[in-house]
């Protein structure tokens, strides 16, 4: 017989970034942002976790192949099916059969040591 350890009621599993950020390893890849996109909180050199098996919904940030380049766009289904430029939402392109969506951005990982994002300043 031993004594009950009071903290044993609060034991938690170890935190695993792999299981948290990459639930489907076979369909997930990581990209690096080439530019800052302030409107969605992506800093230059941010790591983007992209799931190619995720189902995009209205408003998802997606990776599209346009003119042999991979571009980040926002997917819209309403009022019409289109992809929006992340910096300029009024600029959009209609979805066609030639639009290739490579995956959905599920997480954005910014380096907090080198950048500051203040999208809602409180002063």
TrEMBL record:
Residue intervals passing through the bilayer: none
Start and end residues of each Peptidase S24/S26A/S26B/S26C domain: 2-77
Taxonomic superkingdom: Bacteria
Pfam families given in the database record: Peptidase_S24 (PF00717)
Official protein name in the record: DNA polymerase V subunit UmuD
């Amino acid at each position: 017989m031993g004594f009950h350890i009071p903290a044993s009621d609060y034991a938690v599993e170890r935190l695993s970034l792999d299981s948290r950020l990459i639930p489907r390893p076979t369909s997930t890849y990581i990209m690096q942002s080439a530019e800052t996109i302030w409107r969605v909180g992506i800093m230059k050199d941010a790591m983007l976790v992209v799931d190619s098996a995720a189902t995009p919904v209205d408003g998802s940030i997606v990776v599209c192949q346009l003119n042999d380049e991979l571009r980040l766009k926002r997917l819209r289904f309403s009022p019409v099916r289109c992809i929006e430029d992340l910096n300029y939402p009024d600029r959009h392109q209609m979805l066609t059969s030639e639009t290739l969506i490579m995956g959905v951005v599920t997480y954005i990982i910014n380096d907090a040591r080198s950048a500051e994002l203040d999208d809602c300043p409180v002063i």
